[in-house]
Amino acid sequence: MRRLFPAPKVSLLLAVSWLLMNESMSAGNLLLAAAVGLAIPWVADRYRSDRSHPKSWGTTLRLGGAVLRDIVLSNIDVAKRVLGPEAAIHSRFVWVPLDLRDPHGIVALAGIITMTPGTLSSELSQDRRHLLVHALHCPDEAAEAQLIADIKARYETPLREIFE
After folding, report:
1. Could you tell me what percent of the chain has a pLDDT over 70?
2. How many CA atoms lie within 13 A of 107 on its CB side?
3. Collapsing DSSP states into helix, strand and coil, what is residue 67?
4. How would residue 5 be classed by pLDDT, with cut points 50, 70 and 90?
5. Which of 75, 82, 105, 149 could form a disulfide with 159 if both were Cys (CB 3.0 to 4.6 A apart)?
6. Facing residues of 137 across strands?
């Protein structure tokens, strides 16, 4: 059954989306919605090279809470810097060394960094051992070291627990 319906929720979402976009519940549209909902997940499933599932839901929830908190606090900090004097902004690119090896974890880390105002993931090294992060405010080497330490402690360590 799983081979025929690899992603039942996605199938349902696609079918409903099809019907909403066409604004019709005719027999033909119902049939096409069912076909689209079944075919796309079935075809796409063949291209998934690996799957990942969190190994610690408690850590996942704690990380989610920390990320939400950081997003709120970072929004306030970025607003103050952007609305304040230009001298309050010292942007810099920082290479963050990664201990995280799971590709899903690396993607999650890059996404978390990008979602947090004031930072942006911009490149992953070829060997996947360093992530280039642009920081809106990182005035010196001490701030750079602190940024790296914060990213590793707040995000990378929990992600390693979740994915590795």
Report:
1. 96
2. 5
3. helix
4. confident
5. 105
6. 90
* Token pair in block for residue 50: 């690996």
124 is written with which tokens? 């992953």
- What pLDDT, in 10s, does the model give residues 28-63? 999 999 999 999 998 888 777 666 778 888 999 999
Find residue 90's DSSP bridge partners: 137
In angstroms, the CA 132 to CA 124 distance is: 6
Q: Are 94 and 155 in contact (CB under 8 A)?
A: no
Enter the tokens of residue 126.
Answer: 């070829």
CA distance 160 to 22: 44
How far is Cα 16 from Cα 134, in angstroms, rounded to an integer? 40
Nearest to 105 by CA among 139, 77, 80, 128: 128
**DSSP conformation class of 112:** H
Report the distance separating Cα 24 and Cα 44, nearest Å.
Answer: 26
Q: Report the 10 Å Cβ neighbour count for 88.
A: 14
| CB-based burial label for 87 (10 Å; 0-12, 13-18, 19+) | exposed
Residue 95: both structure tokens together = 């290479």
Q: What is the pTM of this model?
A: 0.73
